């Protein structure tokens, strides 16, 4: 929890002073935050249309009991696609198999592909593109 508070405090400092980059060493930990230009929403929308049932789940906010949750294995910046001009790895309503790449998390300038441990339909993509997520935070809901 302390790491998240530290990151939120650093983000607040960046916003307050309109900084594009900040690097802070606190004990053995080094935090480097870089502001990116926001992308247009059209660049991140998938072309797939979610089935009606999936749309209901995605907008409800509460996960049904049969939904499998994909959690962030590490703290990093969440990206839905491999590059800003590429299609998303997955969108709500897409069918995925075990091992399917769902997203990438950028941590310390390394891009980590996050693969599905479940087969099913993506019913919810939780974080926004470019959003900082913490280890253990929900990324996706997959309905078997």
List its traits:
144 residues; alpha+beta; OB fold (Dihydrolipoamide Acetyltransferase, E2P); four-stranded antiparallel sheet; 10 strands; 34% strand
Helices and strands in order:
Layout: H1 2-17, E1 21-26, E2 29-34, H2 52-60, E3 68-71, E4 76-79, E5 95-96, E6 101-107, E7 110-115, E8 120-125, E9 132-133, E10 138-143
Antiparallel strand pairs: 1-2, 3-10, 4-6, 4-9, 5-8, 6-7, 8-10
Structural commentary:
The chain has 2 domains: 1-35, no CATH class; 39-143, OB fold (Dihydrolipoamide Acetyltransferase, E2P). It has a 4-stranded antiparallel beta sheet, covered by helices on one side. It has a 4-stranded antiparallel beta sheet with strand order 7-6-4-9, with no helix packed on it. The longest helix is centred in the first third of the chain and has 16 residues, at 2-17. The relative contact order is 0.21. It has helices spanning 2-17, 52-60, and strands at residues 21-26, 29-34, 68-71, 76-79, 95-96, 101-107, 110-115, 120-125, 132-133, 138-143. By secondary structure, the protein is of the alpha+beta class. Helices cover 17% and strands 34% of the residues.
């Amino acid at each position: 929890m302390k790491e998240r508070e530290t990151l939120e405090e650093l983000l607040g400092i960046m916003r307050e002073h309109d900084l594009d980059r900040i690097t802070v060493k606190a004990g053995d930990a080094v935090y480097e935050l870089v502001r990116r230009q926001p992308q247009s929403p059209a660049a991140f929308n998938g072309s797939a249309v979610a089935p009606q049932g999936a749309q209901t789940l995605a907008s409800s906010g509460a996960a049904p009991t049969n939904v499998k949750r994909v959690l962030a294995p590490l703290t990093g910046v969440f990206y839905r696609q491999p590059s800003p001009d590429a299609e998303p790895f997955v969108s709500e309503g897409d069918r995925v198999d075990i091992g399917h790449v769902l997203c990438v998390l950028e941590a310390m300038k390394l891009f980590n592909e996050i693969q599905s441990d479940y087969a099913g339909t993506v019913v919810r993509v939780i974080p926004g593109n470019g959003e900082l997520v913490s280890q253990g935070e929900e990324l996706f809901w997959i309905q078997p």
